[in-house]
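Components:
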Amino acid sequence: MATTAGGRKLGRVMPTGRVLAIIVPFIVLLVVGGGTWYLYGALNPPPKQQPIAFPHPVHVETLQLDCQFCHRGAAIGPAATVPAVEQCMFCHKVAVTDRPEVQKLRAAWEKKEPIDWLRVYRMPDTVRFVHEAHIQAGFDCAVCHGNVGQQQVVQHARDLRMGDCVTCHRVNEAPTDCTTCHY
Amino acid sequence: MQRREFLKLAGASAAGTVLFAGCTIPQSDLLLQSPALLPEDLLAGYDQWFASVCRQCPAGCGIIVRVMDGRAKKIDGNPVHPLNLGRSCARGQAGVQALYHPDRAPQPLSASGPRGLGRFNRASWEDAGRELMARLRAAQAQPDSVVLVTEPLHGHLGMVVERFVGAYGAQHLTYETLERAPVRAAVKRVFNQDRLPDFDIANAAYVLSFGADFLSTWLSPTQYNREYGLFRQGEAGGQRRPRGTLVQVEPRLSSTGANADAWVPVRPGAEGLLALSIAQVIVSDGLGDRNAAQRMFPTPGALDPFRPDRVASATGVPAERVVQLARDFAARRPALAIGGDSAAAHTNGTLNLTAIFALNYLVGSVGVQGGVRFNPPLPLRELPQTATATSFRDWRAFVERLRTGQPRPVSLLLVHQANPVYGLPTAVGLAGALANVPFIISFSSFVDDTAAYADLVIPDHTYLESWGDYVPDPGPGYPVIGFQQPVVQPFVGSIQFGDLLLRAAQELGGSVAQALPWKSMKEALQASAAELQRLNRGSVRETTPQRFWNAALQRGGWWDAQATVPGAPPAAPQVPTQPAPATFDGDAQQYPLHLLPFPSNALYDGSLAHLPLLQALDDPISTITWATWVEVNPQTAHDLGLIGDQESDVVAVESPFGAVEAVVFVSPSVPPDVVAMPMGQGHRTFTRYATGRGANPLTLVGAREDAETGALAWASTRVRLRKIGRRVRVPIMQGNVSPIQEASWIQIAGPEKA
Amino acid sequence: MPKWGMLVDLDRCSGCRACVAACQIENNVPINTEEIVNQRRGIQWIRIERYWEGTEYPAAKVRNGAMLCQHCRNAPCEPVCPVYATYHNSEGLNTQIYNRCIGTRYCANNDPYNVRFFNYWEPQWPESYYHYLNPDVTVRSKGVMEKCTFCVQRIRRTERQAKREGRALKDGDVQPACVQACPTDALVFGDISDTGSRVSRLAQDKRHFRVLESLGTDPVVFYLKKVDPQHVGDAAKQPAAH
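Structure:
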């Protein structure tokens, strides 16, 4: 590195600066681009091919089932929960047993195997989201999840990052203290 | 990858392309599983609390366990259980670490190496079951060659085991490291009670405790801690009660001594002598109950040899201090005298406790509030409600039988949970004698020191996965039975020991099957519950047995607070006044120091050394974790040139029977001629957290026993310290953070002004 | 809105460490391994400080005191955080927002009670121990500070429960893990803005004091003095060492 004499830096000061001038924008690009991809991309993945192509429209629009008929935890606990295979079989023991996707379900039930759905909505580990509070406050599921009855494959209906949460909390005069969600 | 690491890498590296390689959320986090089955009580993310009984120590407190998604998350005290009323201790909190321990025996194991090394292969259930039955059938011709070793059992498992060994004809031995036999013997002699009494600390004005570390490990510590809070700062009828005074008499300052208003260091083994000396002052000064005194010491002048000035040199307590203690004890009513732990662990242990407990009669503290109250039996006559362990004396005889094969060799040894290879002094030689047993089967949940000698391990459930019950002994002064239910499905391939015995009995058929009519432990419990339901009294009253069963499980048991012992307490007994000084192993010249092992606040007797939470819990006196230390008086340390601080000398603690290494903790908690060591460490085999860690002071202890009960006199050995010139950093919590100011921030209120 | 506070009765405290263990299980505090303790980097949100008063056998006395975050109303740790990861909220909690924290450790430097802990390592448990971790509490990653939260997850849970049952919170409804465990009832938790709450009433006791009162931190953890009938006043007190 540079040595000093009489308080002035000597040597390869300029070349280092030039190298930095090339590298720094690269790093900035990398950080900003990669960071955005990491934070946004991971939280809002593209639509996923589920192990069973479950059609929400049939259940929600045609049969007019209430969301909480299957997602039993939404009003009483933190997690909305996906239904157990047994719960699906309450109906599908007799209802539309011949469809190929229902056959997959019945096969899982025969073997008493769980089904590994691909998660669509995921909060970061530092967030303690509670469905109960939002349902109890009178919000419709669609406020966050969109009209699932129109979605053949479930996908993100809104941003659901912190800015989105806080804006909604502000509008509705819900608490915005950090420890409402982060602890 | 975490955001923070991402920032760090981005700041530090310009490497570019590899930067984001790890930036994905783990695959498992991206899955959302539909369980196959839909149990009614299981909802994801929704917690439930199940009542059960803690079995981390023999106290038997009620617990509630928070269960979420089929996993136990947290254990807390059961708010309605009379023993602990919602409170818990550090050991109870650590229960989830036993349940989910990474080194639980995962399924039946068969030995794959020499005995003692703990090398095992996994075995199938079929093979294990076949082996067990074949061994049991083969030995049926000579049933007394089969020996079953368990922890002291009462309640339903006790009943099942007793009936099994009775019908089969096997021998049943029980083992506990911290023997309660001297306490039981003294209670029997002084109070004529089979069950341990309820020491009503909460309502006492003055507690004189001889060695009993009741705020840490003695008998029922959570109950006693709860009562201690009331004893100090309790309220009665909205008014603050006068603050109780606690005086602790013991050679080494225990956790309880540290909380006492006064610590009276006594010479090891002279506790009974001191108690008699206190009695002498009370009687001769006419301070106490004269009738009781007359019954206790009928021979005129029997107490004269115990005049404080005559025994001062033997007890190490100045005469004037004894007089003061006696006067305070007699004046501050109700006064309570209790004793245990090191006071009982001498060759004169039972005598010591007899003299100590008898003091309660002199001040009218028997059968009264604030004194010694008795525990009535549970109204289940068939059920064993108390258990005394096989004495150390009998264990020695058993080891002799193993060694010589006389009078009859042992062909099959069955061991459930108990760990005698760890707890029995090495000098007894159990480990070596086990070589003469053709086949050993262990039913331990973990491969511990004893299970390491087994040829076959058939692991038991932990208590959080089992059906069971616990009749606390000592109870709270009225009948209590705690119901233990599985709060989660078995986590590994284990089987409940009681159920296994019942199944084995069915397969054996004949008289054994007849003696055990139940199909499972649950069924046996339900039969007793039905009996309680018919009584129609107590905490649960229901119209049908099924409703009673559900309600009792929900509350964690059944108790009857009205059923206290009626009538007058038994009259004062005659108290022996023949002095029996404690004797010690080790020549006083060669081995100048008394060794006082003591139960560890965290690891208890060593049975909890496998739990990292407790290993990392700082000791109340030394604040040391993870290690074995030896407490040395500052003067002694100075004389021997020993340093004990953040970095400490390692010393060899040598007795006539062996030597162990420990780090020095220089402490004013011991007199110059006493050193103290915690029990609990020094396991040869006991999971990743305890194996090969620290040292077991019981390996230094010889073969002395309490003259009356034959219990191991674990405080009767002398040792010497040898500096070995190594100095190590000590895992000590003191100094984990820098002190918040120069002196203690703890403020003290002086004597209350009248 | 309640203002949460705690009281520690030093005359009841027996130093049994039930609080320490209960806190560690409830709050997913990493295992303080031997290596970690040896480096004096153990994490205990609540700890029992053991002081010797005097050094001479047998006169030396042990003094136990529970020390935890004092949730000061004038907290020295809060203004030094460059990213507002720690601040005082309207319920009187000194918060630590893990996802904001960048690990400068300024707060720990400025904390006179030494109750803030830095994660020098990624916390690690054997795989099977993840089953008992509390899903209501974030597992802190390497590089962030952590500290006592007054078990805010329990406060939130109890608030939800009260709401579900359509009632207001009662005194004693919220119990942090340490308070629930404490067998001597030395720890009391509650709303200090409610003069009728148990914690408020006990804080009026003539034995009350607060730790390092002279610093003006205005803590909401109140202490009641240990009683020692033999105590002869501060003049005779020998220097103590923790």
